[in-house]
Write a structure and sequence with these properties.
mainly alpha; single chain; globular; Rna Polymerase Sigma Factor, Chain: A; 72% helix; Arc Repressor Mutant, subunit A
């Protein structure tokens, strides 16, 4: 399996299959991250397409210099497009989950019996509920860290914040989620 840096190089040399592989490799993670930020399936699809148009344009113009860190670079482009959209619309992202799509739906589930699946689904619903109740800045860091798989260094670069700010937002998000769990006497068993 080729690494991202090689695929980018091949695409820049004219190999169209290389960009297809990059899209296939990261489509779900990028789309899920966008959706989690905008909470609207149609808007997420539009912003996802716009993200890859911008990625392709940047690659064609040789504007990629991320040394093989394609996913954080692509997510930064997506994040900036989300911010630009809401600046234009002068709206904040909706904070409610819908039944259309959720990042939790794309997390692969191991084969479980019916009881284990019910317990798993309840845990996912509980975490989703807790996550939605976090302040936007904290939720954003949690999503980028746990669902997009970015490091705190990558998150701080993407959000243009100090790494300690990113770590602090994660820390306070965890504390806030624990408080919500304790307050409501929710027990999440592993």
């Amino acid at each position: 399996m080729m690494d991202d840096k090689d695929l980018v190089r091949l695409y820049q040399q004219g190999n169209q299959e290389a960009i297809t592989e990059l899209v296939h490799r990261y489509k779900q993670r990028i789309h899920s991250t966008i959706y989690f930020l905008v909470k609207n399936q149609e808007l997420a699809e539009d912003l996802f397409q716009e993200t890859f148009i911008k990625i392709i344009s940047s690659l064609r113009n040789k504007a990629y210099s991320e040394q093989g860190k394609f996913l954080p670079w692509a997510l930064r482009i997506a994040h900036n497009l989300v911010i630009d959209h809401f600046r234009k619309e002068k709206l904040m992202p909706l904070q409610h989950d819908s039944e259309e799509f959720s990042v939790f739906d794309v997390i692969p589930a191991n084969s479980r019996n019916a009881v284990d699946q019910i317990i798993y689904d309840e845990k996912i619903a509980t975490v989703r509920n807790l996550l939605e109740r976090l302040p936007y800045e904290q939720r954003e860091v949690v999503i980028l860290r746990h669902y997009a798989g970015l490091s705190f260094k990558e998150i701080s670069k993407m959000l243009d914040i100090n790494i300690n700010t990113a770590l602090g937002r994660m820390h306070y998000a965890v504390i806030k989620m624990r408080e919500m769990v304790e307050k409501e006497s929710i027990r999440i068993k592993e």
